[in-house]
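This part of the workshop introduces the protein records we will be handling. A learned vocabulary of local backbone shapes supplies the integers on the structure line. Getting from the letters to the tokens is the skill we practise here. As an example, a complete record with its sequence and its structure tokens follows.
=====
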Amino acid sequence: MEWGIVYFKARDGSVPADDFLDACPAKIEARFYAVLEAVRAAPPPQFSGGGYWEAMHGEMGGFHEIRLTGPGRRQYRLFCILDNADPDGLRERGFDRPQIAVIAGMVKDSGKKFSGRDYAGVKALGGQYSEGFPRLIAS
């Protein structure tokens, strides 16, 4: 079954992933959309990722990230959740098929790490997404 792609809409009405993508250089934004489309067309576990799509571990377990390198070797990350369930669970979430939920993005300089606080912010947004029935998504 082909998956869909949805963008998380926060309780305050913002769409963090859209805000992030709009701030990215045009080529990086286009590559993010291309990777999302490739994952959607051959969803996990079929999609191998090609180094761009990675399952996260540890405190970020349950998230996947798209990893891109941009101008000046800046590291761009787009954080997603795979939202799948049986048909009744999908209906309860407001879906007719599994979804790749695009939650938020961050950028860092090469050689730097995101802080625990940075990741906690992404996790909090993912929690808002996962708690909503139906899911909070941009239209």
The longest helix spans residues 26-41. The radius of gyration is 15 Å. The helical segments are 16-23, 26-41, 87-93, 116-131.
